[in-house]
């Protein structure tokens, strides 16, 4: 391989490892969120029982329990938003991986001399190019979705 091909291969491996590490970090965070959801659910159940069962408790105590319950709901909503963002990031990673694989295939066809290409090669090259455009469009939609979400949160 010429030097530029080795460099491309090395960069492809490096970007693949970065995507893999990001995917692992996202998976860990999703698992943490799931555990936190369960904990919040248990705390919420306890508070609801206290509010229902303790009708003769002082109003201050009931207000405190209600505030705690509202805080738990707010915390759960924040976690759901974060989980949604992470799921979008997972989709983006999948599309990024798909794009890299298609890039590699397309590059192999494009590196072939035009005189050596068969009609099947040209057809395959066009199909890969079409798939690549679809993947890029899907990634663009995800980015727009993230931007809209960010703007609506502001």
UniProtKB/TrEMBL annotation:
This protein's UniProt keywords: Coiled coil, Membrane, Monooxygenase, Oxidoreductase
Coiled coil segments of this chain: 23-50
InterPro entries assigned: bMERB_dom, F-actin_Monoox_Mical
Locations listed in the record: Membrane
Primary localisation category: membrane
Ranges that cross the membrane: none
A GO MF term: monooxygenase activity
Domain BMERB: 13-154
Superkingdom of origin: Eukaryota
Name of the protein this chain belongs to: MICA1 monooxygenase
Organism of origin: Drymodes brunneopygia
Lineage: Eukaryota, Metazoa, Chordata, Craniata, Vertebrata
